[in-house]
């Protein structure tokens, strides 16, 4: 029995794929972050960012919050802010799926939509301008150390534990980069030989949740020294793998998860042996109004 929905954040399942890997000496495990109560890996960071800010006194119950988001972080922040009775405004490009917008509003958040052409960069600019003008507190997931520390405290230790300390490679999509930064930091402390692989989209691809940032918008929490290798995936690859995971593995996820899995499979095909873990970032139900599963 849990005392709070917050107790259900983390300790997500690690499931081995049964159809994607042909070499019996290479095993690929997928960490199902959609099992978090808010439906994504971002529950971890959102909880740690808000809880830590409250504990330090950076914010109080009267503080108004704002954050730019492409979706999953916003949903997680809306849920956590609602539990702590905090007022929050979430800023998103207007082409975000309606499921995401409605979910944030269901949790009680104010949602502001910016132009689709401006993308997440435009949403970030809007939020920063609102902070300067109105003195609102921005969570700032892109430069907030409590983002990556959430994964140092939870995601990394869970993977280390659940692979019986045998993980050889970790694969993660890169958006804010909090997941890969925190997990890498922990795993490298346990075994410096573990290889950390980041996943980015090809230049001509748009994959929700995975970004190749312009220099001016590169997350300040990102440290390239903590990533051993970066693999690029196309939008077509990510879509195809996302659909495959649903049909053949029963894993219903978003396109960033398909992208990470496609990269992980490519990596596995290079290995003679190993234990590979890849992050399944979220659930597929928040993409049903898009073309992903049509």
TrEMBL record:
InterPro entries: Cys_synth, Cys_Synth/Cystath_Beta-Synth, CysM, P-phosphate_BS, TrpB-like_PALP, TrpB-like_PALP_sf. This is Cysteine synthase. GO terms for molecular function: cysteine synthase activity. Gene3D superfamilies: 3.40.50.1100. One of its GO terms (biological process) is cysteine biosynthetic process from serine. It comes from the Bacteria. It comes from Antarcticibacterium arcticum. It catalyses: O-acetyl-L-serine + hydrogen sulfide = L-cysteine + acetate. Residues 6-282 form the Tryptophan synthase beta chain-like PALP domain. Its cofactor is pyridoxal 5'-phosphate. The gene is cysM. SUPFAM superfamilies: Tryptophan synthase beta subunit-like PLP-dependent enzymes (SSF53686). PANTHER family: CYSTATHIONINE BETA-SYNTHASE. The modification N6-(pyridoxal phosphate)lysine is found at residue 42. Pathway: Amino-acid biosynthesis; L-cysteine biosynthesis; L-cysteine from L-serine: step 2/2. Its EC number is 2.5.1.47. Belongs to the cysteine synthase/cystathionine beta-synthase family. It is an enzyme of class 2 (transferase). Pyridoxal 5'-phosphate binds at residues 72, 175-179, 256. Keywords: Amino-acid biosynthesis, Cysteine biosynthesis, Pyridoxal phosphate, Transferase.
